């Protein structure tokens, strides 16, 4: 898929939009945030930013690019303080302009405030329209900025303002706010997007995923609960639940693909969950074959689970290049469509003459799967059977994941048999929804992109925005 800015998305995956990080009470907070964001880089590669406070002043730096590109030694040297928040982004609302990079920051009557958001408000457009009608002006196209406006219009302390502002929001938000003296971490009542709390020395850390703690020598304490707000100051940490209760609906796709394999949420490890999904897939969709191979890296654990149940030989028949990001600029028109080959390489000595089962985590449009099947067959495989460690993705997401429209999702209008024909596989089998739920411990998850059962109906469609800023 090529976007109008010339960037080619060589992946045919749903995309997580953002990772958030926060640290309070630690020297070199910006450096720690830089490292934490590095551990969350898989959650967004378009822009990165850090806001830091030394108790008196808030300093923010954000730009397009990977974490290591955005934060040079020179930049980090200017980010001084013992409390900070950070963000990596892949755009959901608002496109990829630098003006939409986060943390967003503003000054209002109570002083400076910065915010970093993972998620998508289902009434973001309505909130914005209401604020614009009331005279507010916006400098970004994000729904997050509407929250900042609401915070500014409320009264009381920063946590009171944040709670009152977010009481007007619906949808998905795992957010971190920073004022000069307070770090606030808050998760929406359904808990769509993950958010975790950790300890670092005498201070606290929060992050989308626990591996961000491990990288900086921190310790995971627990998940921030759906509907919970944590307020961290020099006096310590206070937890409250300022919102109306709602059913827990954490995104089940975090276990299938988005989260790192070494992450765990609520005591359920992503790696072991993926192995269980592969094992259940093997029981539900058996196939007579010689070897099992994963589409690396996300299919690896599921393929191991599949191989363990079937007794088939587990092999690495595809090697992934780790030097290609999830986006890559196509150099010229004449050599288009090399994207998959750039990223995955077949191992002919493994594949030649074999009946191959290839395990992937999902099929979105089918374009990549078709190329992978051809690549395996061209390398001499006798048969290529595709097994997917999640159910068919037939519905778009409105809760902070970038997905194509429904009519672009191949499973929305085609049966597995038709999709198998399209991707030229000898057979195709998906995991059932029951098998997926069982693999992650049962209820309490959103699985709307598989089931169509949306926990919250979206109220608005983001409006087209005309303001573009390039720095
Ligand atoms: S619709 Fe799918 S991707 Fe979106 S939150 Fe629900 S499970 Fe996750």
Q: Can you tag this structure with a few keywords?
A:
single chain, 471 residues, alpha+beta, Glutamine Phosphoribosylpyrophosphate, subunit 1, domain 1, Rossmann fold, 28 strands, 27% helix, disordered N terminus, binds iron/sulfur cluster
Can you tell me about this structure?
The chain is an alpha+beta fold and 471 residues long. It has two domains: 7-249, Glutamine Phosphoribosylpyrophosphate, subunit 1, domain 1 (4-Layer Sandwich); 270-451, 3-Layer(aba) Sandwich (Rossmann fold). Helix content is 27%, strand content 27%. The chain is built from 16 helices and 28 strands. The chain has a seven-stranded antiparallel sheet. It is elongated, with a radius of gyration of 22 Å. 53% of the residues are buried. Iron/sulfur cluster (SF4) binds next to helix 16.
Number of strands: 28
**In CATH's first tier, which class of the largest domain applies?**
Alpha Beta
Q: Evaluate the radius of gyration.
A: 22 Å
Strand order of the largest sheet: 5-4-6-3-12-11-13
Any low-confidence stretches, pLDDT <50, length ≥5? 1-10, 461-465
Bound molecules: iron/sulfur cluster
The total count of helices amounts to 16
Rounded mean pLDDT score: 90
Helix share, percent: 25-40%
- Provide the structure class: alpha+beta
Shape designation:
elongated
Number of domains: 2
- CATH fold-type name of the largest domain: Glutamine Phosphoribosylpyrophosphate, subunit 1, domain 1
Under CATH, the homologous superfamily of the largest domain reads Aminohydrolase, N-terminal nucleophile (Ntn) domain
The CATH architecture name of the largest domain reads 4-Layer Sandwich
How many angstroms separate the termini?
26 Å
Biggest sheet features: 7 strands, antiparallel
Beta-sheet strand percentage? 25-35%
């Amino acid at each position: 898929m090529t976007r109008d800015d010339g960037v080619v998305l060589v992946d045919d995956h749903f995309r997580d939009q953002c990772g958030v990080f926060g640290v309070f009470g630690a020297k070199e907070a910006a450096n720690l945030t830089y490292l934490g964001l590095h551990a969350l880089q898989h959650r967004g590669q378009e822009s990165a930013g850090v806001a830091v406070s030394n108790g008196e002043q808030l300093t923010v730096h954000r730009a397009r690019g990977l974490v290591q590109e955005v934060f040079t030694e020179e930049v980090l040297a200017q980010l001084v303080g013992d409390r900070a928040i950070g963000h990596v982004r892949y755009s959901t609302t608002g496109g990829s302009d630098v003006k939409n990079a986060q943390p967003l920051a503003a000054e209002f009557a109570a002083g400076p405030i910065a915010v970093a958001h993972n998620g998508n408000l289902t009434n973001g457009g309505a909130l914005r329209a209401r604020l614009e009608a009331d005279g507010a002006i916006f400098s970004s196209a994000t729904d997050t900025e509407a929250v900042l406006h609401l915070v500014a219009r409320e009264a009381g302390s920063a946590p009171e303002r944040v709670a009152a502002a977010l009481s007007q929001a619906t949808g998905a938000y795992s957010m971190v706010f920073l004022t000069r003296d307070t770090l606030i971490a808050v998760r929406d009542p359904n808990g769509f997007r993950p958010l975790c709390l950790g300890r670092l020395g005498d201070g606290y850390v929060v992050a989308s995923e626990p591996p961000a703690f491990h990288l900086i020598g921190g310790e995971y304490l627990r998940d921030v609960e759906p509907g919970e707000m944590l307020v961290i100051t020099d006096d310590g940490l206070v937890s409250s639940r300022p919102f109306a209760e709602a059913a827990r609906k954490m995104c089940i796709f975090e276990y299938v693909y988005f989260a790192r394999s070494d992450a765990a949420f609520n005591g359920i490890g992503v790696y072991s969950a993926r192995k269980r999904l592969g094992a259940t897939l093997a029981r539900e969709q058996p196939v007579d074959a010689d070897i099992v191979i994963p589409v690396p890296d996300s299919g690896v654990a599921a393929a191991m689970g599949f191989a363990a149940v079937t007794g088939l030989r587990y092999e690495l028949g595809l090697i992934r290049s780790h030097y290609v990001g999830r986006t890559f600029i196509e150099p010229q028109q004449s050599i288009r469509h090399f994207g998959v080959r750039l990223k995955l390489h077949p191992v002919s000595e493994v594949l030649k003459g074999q009946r191959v089962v290839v395990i992937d985590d999902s099929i979105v449009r089918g374009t990549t799967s078709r190329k992978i099947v051809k690549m395996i067959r061209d390398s001499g495989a006798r048969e290529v059977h595709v097994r997917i460690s999640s159910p068919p993705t037939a519905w778009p997401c409105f809760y902070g994941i970038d997905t194509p429209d429904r009519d672009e999702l191949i499973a929305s209008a085609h049966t597995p048999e038709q999709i198998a024909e399209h991707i030229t596989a000898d057979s195709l089998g998906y995991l059932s929804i029951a098998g997926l739920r069982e693999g992650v411990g049962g209820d309490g998850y959103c699985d709307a992109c598989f089931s169509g059962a949306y926990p919250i109906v979206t109220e608005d469609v983001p409006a087209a925005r005309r303001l573009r800023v390039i720095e």
